[in-house]
Amino acid sequence: MSETVAAAITTAAAATGSGIEVRTGNCLCGKIRFTVTGPVDDPHVCNCAHCAKRSGSPFQWWVGFPADGLKWTGEGGEPTWYDTYPGKTTRGFCDRCGTHIAARDYGDDTMIGILATALDHYGTDPALVPTNLNRVAEAADWLAQCDPRPVAAG
């Protein structure tokens, strides 16, 4: 973990007096800000059609956190929610700039999915590195050719 990220997480944890990791984030325009407290759960990349259509990207990078550790702190309060899978999953976005921020599954009040790129320090926090790829069969065929690593024979 970089010193800057470690310092930010340590400072946030000290501010809460809990010693628990606290991360912050926001939408593009800053109207919606949030903190998430607790351990990172299931950082992954999703290739499903809903993530692709909603984001304008072939995939999205999700990270789970305990739902009770999420606090909306910006002037905009909580994001606007849209049911991408009615009765199953709802996604939160900023109604001013359109940034996608979060996802909740109905019936699971224990976890909240946060788009990793909505978090501050998402590019340097090693706890956010994806550990799996979801819905690989739905991924765009050309994604494999974007990998600059040599392909192993066999």
Quick structural overview:
The protein is an alpha+beta fold. It has helices at 3-16, 49-55, and strands at residues 22-26, 33-37, 41-46, 60-66, 70-72, 80-85, 89-93, 100-105, 111-115, 132-134.
What does it look like?
The protein is α+β, with helices and mostly antiparallel strands. Helices cover about 15% and strands about 35% of the residues. The radius of gyration is 16 Å and the shape is globular. The termini are far apart. The model is unreliable at about 5-15 (pLDDT under 50).
Indicate the overall shape.
Answer: globular
Element-level helix/strand string: HEEEHEEEEEEE
Q: How many extended strands?
A: 10
Instruction: Determine the structural class based on helices, strands and strand pairing.
Output: alpha+beta
Q: What is the first-to-last residue Cα distance?
A: 35 Å
Strand content: 25-35%
- What's the number of helices? 2
Q: Share of helix among residues?
A: 10-25%
If strands are numbered along the chain, what order do they take across the biggest sheet?
6-7-8-9-4-3-10
Present the secondary structure layout.
Blueprint: H1 3-16, E1 22-26, E2 33-37, E3 41-46, H2 49-55, E4 60-66, E5 70-72, E6 80-85, E7 89-93, E8 100-105, E9 111-115, E10 132-134
Parallel strand pairs: 3-10
Antiparallel strand pairs: 1-2, 2-5, 3-4, 4-9, 6-7, 7-8, 8-9
